[in-house]
Amino acid sequence: MKIGARALLAAGLFASAILAPPPVRADEPAASAEAKAGARAAAESGTTAFKAGRFGEAVDMFLRAEELFHAPTHVLMLARSYVGLGKLVLAKEAYLAIVREVLGPKAPAAFKLAKADAEKELADLSPRIPTLQVSTTPEAKDVVVTIDEKPLPPALLGVASPIDPGTHVLRATADGMAAPEKSVTLKEGEKSEVVLELSPVANAGPIKPVRRPGPEQPAGKTSPGRIAGGALLGLGVAGLGVGGAFGVLSLMKRSEADGAFNTCGVGCSGPQADAVRALDEDANQKGTIGVIGLAAGGALTITGVILFVTAKRSPETSPQGASVTPWIGPQGGGVVGRF
């Protein structure tokens, strides 16, 4: 895949582009400083993976960056990563998303460059995408066709549809009928038509998706004492205080990191870039502690209130030997009890 100077320039402007706000949708809130910093880090990792030919990793990183902060530059590199994986259909949809986006007059230059590049690359990609038309014969009820084990919508039967190049496995069943499995290999730009011939088969029926049973929910009753509820409530309030304090410290560090990055500018490197990364890491650490404190404090507070009220309403149902043990971990906090 060849990428011109304009493409490399767009990739190099990732960090500066996400600091300037894109056109704000009426129903979309402005991104936080933490989200911008996270998107910047994910985009940088995605660019590194893309240049190294690790396109699967690049897709993951650009999807994360886009989830945190929308930028046409993210979507452009996502489309290019899909092309690297041979997923041309997904790449085309990503390009179309950029082309159809309306940029405001104050949009960053990197966003406008990304849109112009997307229009050119989309025009080059479209003729490369193969099409496959699948139909069945004879007419039958409850026809289900799958391509690579994924159901084909009934509305697309007999319709030439875009598909990625490569080998695809086709199957079809109907009420009391089935067709032999068939494989088809498509090259870029190739157009193919496949007819699956149904024939009577004993006990044949439509292909049904397999649903995995969900985890069983443990049953139980909650009836702890007032002392346990009061203790958890106190711990919860303390946790909320700690989480809030570290959250404020994280925002302050994030603001300091953004200021340092703006001072450094596009192409920032050396000690200044290291300083920006250090500030981002410090902000992330404080933010993590804040989230843990808030999550654990909230869980403990709510649990304490519930236990306290429950004990008040039904003291006669509380069994002997009840115990409640709070816990706090990297992913949050909560309580473990025996009632």
UniProtKB/TrEMBL annotation:
Region: Disordered, residue numbers: 205-225
Domain of life per record: Bacteria
Protein name: PEGA domain-containing protein
Transmembrane spans: 227-249, 287-309
Keywords: Membrane, Signal, Transmembrane, Transmembrane helix
Cleavable signal peptide: 1-26
Organism encoding this protein: Polyangium spumosum
